[in-house]
Every structure is written in C-alpha cells, then in structure tokens.
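Hey team,

Filing this mostly as a record. A colleague (T.K.) asked me to run one chain through the structure pipeline before their review meeting, and I want the input and output archived in the tracker in case anyone asks later how it was produced. No errors, nothing strange. Just documentation.

Input sequence:
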Amino acid sequence: MKAQLKPIEGFDLSSNEESGMPEYTVTLVPPNFVNSVWEDAERLLQGGVDKSKERWNIEYLYQSLMTGDQQLWVAFDDDQEITSVLTTQFIPYPTKLSLAVQFAGGIENQTKTSIFTCVLNKLEQYAQESGCDCVEFWGRKGFSQWMKKAGYEETAVFYEKDIDNGR
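Output structure:
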C-alpha cells in the first residue's frame, strides 16, 4: 500500500475555535518550504531526536523532511508564532496504511491548551483523506489523558486510532 499524495479538496488549514480557547492554525509544510520554518522547528524537535538513543540525529531528520520521506507539520498562534511541530510518515503495513507521528515538540505546557486538539484533528483528517486506516505514535505517559479523551487506545505507551475512510 502506498499513500495517495494529492491535494485535499476542502482541506481547511485553520482550526476550529473551541469555547473561547485561542485559535491555532495547523498546516503541513511542503518539502520546498521546510527551510523557511526549520530554525524554529529544529529547536522544538531536537528533544525528541535526542530521545531516539542515536537512532536519529537532527541532520538525518532534516534530510528525511527535504526528500518527503517524512512530512513536517507546524501549529502557530494568532501572532504567527510556531507553538508546536511534528513529523509524520506513511507506514505501509501488509494490511493497513498508517500515518505515524515520528517526532513532536512544542512550547512548554502545550498539552494543557487547545493546540493538542487542533493538531490531532488535522492529522486525523489528513490521514483519512490520504487513505490511511489509522494514526499511530509512541509518546510519553503524560499524553495518556489527552489521547484517551481523543479516542486513542493506549497499548504500552503506543497510541493508535482507527480512521474510518469509507472501507
């Protein structure tokens, strides 16, 4: 299985304002624009890369983003400040196609804001429109409360959610 990378008709990049919480915009950064946000993204992704126990370094991650093997996502606030970044990768399993979050980072206490909800909504929409069956990622235990609330199942500290894409 290979993802059908195509423009997504009606894909709105602005977030839904929820009960007076600040609004965030979440967007996929095309490979040819990675350089324009890399300084901020690199700073926020470095901690996750450091936790990979030398499986990755920031230079390899950058190359993976530039070649399109991974995708870079950014969330920014009304002041155009980047508040959260993450990378995704399509993982073709024998019977499923998954959108996997590989690295994530953001401002301190971001999981206590609506950023987290905005990001998950966009990833799930993108996964569905791309023909994925699920979204998955490894995360720290601290994400557990948010992930369960968003409908994800905790299996070890691996989160996954099936996406109904009409199959």
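Quick notes for T.K.: Residues 34-50 form the longest helix (17 residues). Strands lie at 25-29, 71-76, 82-92, 97-106, 134-138, 153-155, 158-162.
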